[in-house]
Write a structure and sequence with these properties.
The structure holds two protein chains of two kinds. Chain A is mostly beta strands. In chain A, about 0% of the residues lie in helices and about 45% in strands. In chain A, strand 6 and strand 7 form a beta hairpin. The radius of gyration of chain A is 13 Å and the shape is globular. By secondary structure, chain B is an all-beta fold. In chain B, about 0% of the residues lie in helices and about 50% in strands. Chain B contains no helices and eleven strands. In chain B, strands 2, 4, 5, 6, 9, 10 and 11 form a seven-stranded mixed β-sheet that branches. The chains are: A mainly beta, B mainly beta. The interface between A and B is medium-sized, with 23 and 28 residues.
């Protein structure tokens, strides 16, 4: 399974778009890109996932580069409640799938 | 649906004691897994199961046992607790191995 690298921390002004990058340069063709977040000490929460195409849901947008070696999670209008650790991960077929690194700690500033 | 539930929420053990962390899901998910989270380490996979009667080891299985007698339950057993097992433990479930994982609220374990 592909490993991912993310910046350790980022700040974003409230109301602005938060763009969180992730590098997954060793991703294979059948691996999905998943994003989760963990608010305070709660269990991780699913945000969005994709394989090749860009995806959008009510929480966020996911932009995957054409070579699939990196992706960006976009929170279009960040709020204080979006302050959390964001994990980018990949999953392939096979049960031993998700690798969670240390994620990006996003702080939304009033 | 209650989703994924974990008990207890918090536990203190003495070195050498054994205990079972409970995990249950009511979504009829086939895949279940256990992670531990240590400060600055992200989440690490301990054990996982692709269905009732089937379990396998993850990244850090030593010191832990699991069983999956039913689809709903996936308990994690600490055989002889050690201070190195002080951590936050999360259980997760999903429909399949490539599907979205749903996490429980976690169990905070302190081993003295």
């Amino acid at each position: 399974d592909a490993k991912t690298t993310q910046p350790t921390s980022m700040d974003c002004a409230e109301g602005r778009a938060a763009n969180l990058p992730c590098n997954h340069s060793t991703i294979s063709g059948n691996e999905y890109v998943y994003w989760y977040r963990q608010i305070h000490s709660q269990g991780p929460q699913y945000i969005i996932h994709g394989l090749k195409n860009n995806e959008t849901n009510e929480m966020a947008s996911l932009i995957i580069t054409e070579d699939r070696k990196s992706s960006t999670l976009i929170l279009p209008h960040a709020t204080l409640r979006d302050t959390a650790v964001y994990y980018c991960t990949t999953s392939a077929t096979g049960a031993n799938n998700l690798f969670f690194g240390t994620g990006t700690r996003l702080t939304v500033i009033p | 649906n209650a989703g994924v539930t974990q008990t207890p929420k918090f536990q203190v053990l003495k070195t050498g004691q054994s205990m079972t962390l409970q995990c249950a899901q009511d979504m009829n998910h086939e895949y279940m897994s256990w992670y531990r989270q240590d400060p600055g380490m992200g989440l690490r996979l301990i054990h996982y199961s692709v269905g009732a009667g089937i379990t396998d080891q993850g990244e850090v299985p030593n010191g832990y046992n699991v069983s999956r007698s039913t689809t709903e339950d996936f308990p994690l057993r600490l055989l002889s607790a050690a201070p190195s097992q002080t951590s936050v433990y999360f259980c997760a479930s999903s429909v399949g191995t490539q599907e979205t994982q749903y996490f429980g609220p976690g169990t905070r374990l302190l081993v003295l």
